[in-house]
Each structure stands twice: as structure tokens, then as C-alpha cells.
Amino acid sequence: MAAPKTYLNYVGGEWKAVSSELVEASINPANRHETLGYLQLSSVDDLNEAIAAAKDAKLAWRRLSAPARGEFLFKVANHIERRLDEIAEMMTREMGKTLLEAKGETARGVAILRYYASEGMRKIGDVIPSTDSAALMFTTRVPLGVVGVITPWNFPVAIPIWKMAPALIYGNTVVFKPAQETGITAALIIECFHEAGLPAGVVNMITGDGGVIGQAMADHPDIHGVTFTGSNTVGKRVGQSALARGAKYQLEMGGKNPVIVAQDADLDLAVEATISGGLRSTGQKCTATSRVIVHSEVYEAFKMKLLQKIQVIRVGSGLEAVTWMGPCASEKQFRTVLSYIAKGVEEGGTLLCGGGEGRGQGLENGFFVEPTVFENISSSMTIAQEEIFGPVLALIKVDSLEEALQIANDIKFGLSASIFTRDISTMLTFMNEIDAGMVRVNAESAGVELHAPFGGVKQSSSGSREQGQAAIEFYTDIKTVFIKS
Ligand SMILES: NC(=O)C1=CN([C@@H]2O[C@H](COP(=O)(O)OP(=O)(O)OC[C@H]3O[C@@H](n4cnc5c(N)ncnc54)[C@H](OP(=O)(O)O)[C@@H]3O)[C@@H](O)[C@H]2O)C=CC1
Ligand SMILES: O=C(O)CCC(=O)C(=O)O
Description:
There is one protein chain. By secondary structure, this protein is an alpha/beta fold. The protein contains 15 helices and 19 strands. Residues 150-154, 177, 179-181, 209-211, 214-215, 218, 229-231, 234, 237-238, 252-254, 286, 333, 336, 387, 389 line the site of NADPH dihydro-nicotinamide-adenine-dinucleotide phosphate.
């Protein structure tokens, strides 16, 4: 086998080594002894070079017509599609999700690129009747300039693309700082941008420590907008730094998403959706189900069905076809999840299944956690309040819809929420009263459609929306034009 290579930064259309020569190994979370490659630990000087390249490229890029920019995005999509298996396999090796999920995510990246490529042909303004009959008044949209893109490791293809594609189609240039955890997958995506022949400097990528590179990006005067997905703590810091210098920012952060199982729910459907929403990707989605609020009349029946199905989940390397759930993405994440489980027990929760490291043949060298279900959880407990980002479900028993909604809303987050019921009035009450940006009825809490607005309320988001046509709001400024002959 070839020795693991060092993945370089991409600056001004070229692959660049950092002067410090500092690198960090990227390892396989299913087998900590497998090194996949090395990522550079860039300095602020390296970042400044990338920002300068993006700044130099921005005038020519914004002067291109939007359909012409779209042609580049179509080409990038074709290159990713051609390399889909390779990219998906690296994603699975680098962060652990199953190959099936990784392929699905990479295909979603292709679809997002094609969607925004086509957005380049859609209208970007309105004609507004002026009070002056001899004038023409209308709105148009202009790019922000250079956009800083800071992304997490849980969707290493879809999230960077759903930020970069709208940034580019609306005429911005990009400096991209991927999560160090999934820097190789990010580099493969950037190779596809390179292969598509984007003009030099339009897209740039810098790897390195988030506290250094991400923070410097948020502080840099030539970054006109910062888009971030990740933890609440870091997101708030990024937002404050951008706000302090008058730059635009967009934050997508945590979730603590509830599913409510009403007494008239289709229990089999609710169980399937709870498992898929809570445990797919090892629970590492901001939209993952983590609180399962069940009506007392169906609580025992739901619990038995849930436990039966969870018992047969196969945990293992995401590369193996029989695996349903892979490892946590990193040792840090693995330790965080185990410490939340310990906290749940310490605070009086009852473990119904799981609760420990995944054991068995082939699991000894990876960051595996058993699928875990707690009961006797009250809303004030830590595991009912904080984002765990792991395969852990907390069952909470309630006696009414009112109580379910009160518990579901008793949280600082508000990203996604779902309910299982057959009753239209229960659906409507839920839709109106739940604190969530993504409201789902008889469907799991995770799952996002690329052409619909995505985002949360409360501390899950900075209030803006990503994806679909909503993305134009962040990546452009409106100009109101008044023309008189
Ligand atoms: N909403 C979501 O989708 C996600 C939520 N999370 C939550 O966050 C927890 C911790 O995960 P973690 O990976 O540490 O998330 P972070 O918020 O630390 O990382 C997200 C991104 O921000 C970068 N970053 C880190 N520190 C800074 C900083 N000071 N300024 C600017 N950018 C920075 C990271 O870089 P680097 O990789 O170099 O650290 C990464 O690119 C998880 O357990 C989960 O609860 C995590 C990922 C996604
Ligand atoms: O549910 C999804 O597919 C997207 C989730 C997401 O955006 C995230 O976890 O960051």
C-alpha cells in the first residue's frame, strides 16, 4: 500500500504546502491504527494568503453572468459524480458513517450543486411601482464579496457544498476551512472544483486548527460573510467576532430534537423513525432524535417494540455491508458520548439497553458505542438538555399532548421536531406550538430536502435559513435601484 500522503491547502488555484511543515494524522475511527493521510496545520499567514487570493478573484467572478457561473457548478457536480465511490469510501474511512450513507450524502452533494447551478438562471429581483411615473424602480442582488465557510465533520460533503454552491452562484468567492477531522474528504471535493477549471482564487481551502484558522477567518476584515455549522459554543464566538466588525454571519448549531409519540400513533412507524432519526450516522446529526416523548397509554408497547429492533442493530466498520451503525467520528466524540451516558446514570436515569463501548470481534480498535436507550428521564437532567451527538435515546413518559409540548419546548434548542399521530387537530396544534424550525409529522426528525429552507429557532441557529432559495438572503445584499431618464 502507498504511504499516506499529506493533503495540501488550495490557494489561488494551486496546491500549497505550509511553511511550518506541521501536519496532523487523519485516522480511521473504526480502526485507530489506520492512518489515512496527513493534514497541514496552517498558520494565520497561510490563511491571509488564501483570503488575498479570494479577494483578487472576486471582481472577475462577480462580473461573469450567473448562468456562466452555473456552468462551472454543473462541471463540479459531474466530477464529483464520476468520483462518487472514491469520495464516499474516504468519508466512511475518515468519519465512520456507513458506506451507504456516505454514498447517499455524496450524491446529495451532486444534486445540491446542480440545483444551485440552475438557480443562476432564476430571477434575483422585483420591479416595484414608483410614485414617480417617469421612473423605474427595482431590486437587484449583489454578492457580499469573500465568504468564509467553516464546516463540521458530520456531513463532510453535503454541508460544505450547501454553503459553497450558493455562495458561488450568487457571485462570491470562497475561503473554506473544513473540520480537521474530515479534511481529506474535503480535499477530494476541492480537487473536483479544481478539475472543473474554476478561475484561480474563486475557491480556496485551508486546513488547520479551528481555534486558529476559524477564529482568524471570523476576525479578518476582508471576509465579508461567515457561514458556520458546528457547536453552539464555537458558533456564538464566530457570530460575535463577525458582528463586532460588521460582517454578515450565519450560524447553524446544535439540536436536542424531540419526537412525540401520541396515543393514536402508528407505533411501528414511530419506532422505525425513532431508530433511523436517532441512531443513523451514530446519532451525529444536528437533526438527530434524542428525546422520545411517549404518551403513557402506549409507552410500554412502544418501548418493547423499540428495544426489540435496537437489539438487532449491527455495529461495526461502515465499510462492511452488514453494518448498520458505525463508530463515533473521533476519540473525542467517543469520550464525550460515554461521559454523557455516565452522567445519565449518575442523575438517576435507567439504562434499558447499551450504555457501554461496542465490544466484539473487529470493534476493539475503534470508537464504537452501543446503541443506548434510557428511561426515567426528567426534562431537567443533563442528557435531556444537552446535545450528546451520539447513539443515545432518552424516553420520557407523558399523560397528554400539552405535557409533551411543554417538555419538548423546555430546551434552549429548536432545530427539528416530529410527532406521530393520526389526528389532524393534534398535528395542527403541534405544528403551531412546537419551538422548531423543521416540523415533521409522521416522519423522523432528521432528513433535509435540498430545495427547502433549513434552520432552527432559539439557540439552534442565528435565525437565517440555509438551502433552497432561502440561501440567497445570506449570500447577497439587496440593492434598491431607482432610475429616471
Ligand atoms: N450542528 C451540527 O451539525 C454540529 C454540531 N456539533 C456539536 O459540537 C460538538 C463538538 O464538535 P466539534 O467538532 O468540536 O465542533 P466545533 O464547533 O468545534 O467545530 C466545527 C467547526 O468549527 C471549527 N472551529 C473550532 N474552533 C473554532 C473557533 N474558535 N473559531 C472558528 N472555528 C472553529 C472546527 O475546526 P476544527 O475541526 O479544526 O476544530 C470545525 O471546522 C459535538 O459534540 C456536537 O454536539 C458538531 C458538529 C456538527
Ligand atoms: O438531517 C440532515 O440530513 C442534515 C443534518 C445537518 O445538517 C447536520 O447534522 O448538521
